[in-house]
Amino acid sequence: MAVFAGQNRDQLRRMYLDTWRKFTARVPLEPLEAQVAAVIAEHAEYVQWLESGEEALAAEFTPESGRQNPFLHMGLHLAIREQVATNRPQGIASIHDTLSKRLGDAHAAEHAMLEPLAETLWEAQRNGRAPNEQAYLEKLRKL
Are residues 54 and 70 in the same domain? Predict the structure, then answer.
């Protein structure tokens, strides 16, 4: 999401923790914070860990550790939601709708879409280019 573009890893992670703290304290949230809190709320397996504070901020997620990066996972959910809301790339909203119906709900559809998005972003970074939207959509259509 463009809003996160200027943040470093620690700032981004702290934003998740601060947002969750505000949400649980029933403090009014900014629109982006409300989106983040909704994603966190859908991932109960991360809540206790996020509430650990400094431990969550300092955690490392290497391929060798075999641990999924909760911040990356939730960030991909947010990215997919933004893509669907704006229908960018063109056609993604329809793909999401179809998957939601087939898999039972929007969250399950997002989970199916996470890997193709992560793969597309990784390929773009590796090649030093913008993500290939058509290749991404084709991966999603195959789900």
Answer: no
Distances (CA, A) of 138 to 34, 86, 110: 31, 18, 16
CA distance 23 to 79: 20
Q: Are residues 42 and 108 in the same domain?
A: no
Three-class SS of residue 25? coil
Please state the domain count of the chain.
2
Both tokens assigned to 113: 């879409």
* Cα torsion angle, 120, 121, 126, 130, sign: positive
User: Tens-of-pLDDT digits for all 143 residues of the chain?
Assistant: 444 555 788 899 999 999 999 999 999 999 999 999 999 999 999 999 899 888 888 889 887 888 889 999 999 999 999 999 999 999 999 999 999 999 999 999 999 999 999 999 999 999 999 999 999 999 999 99
Residues 73 and 142 in one domain: yes
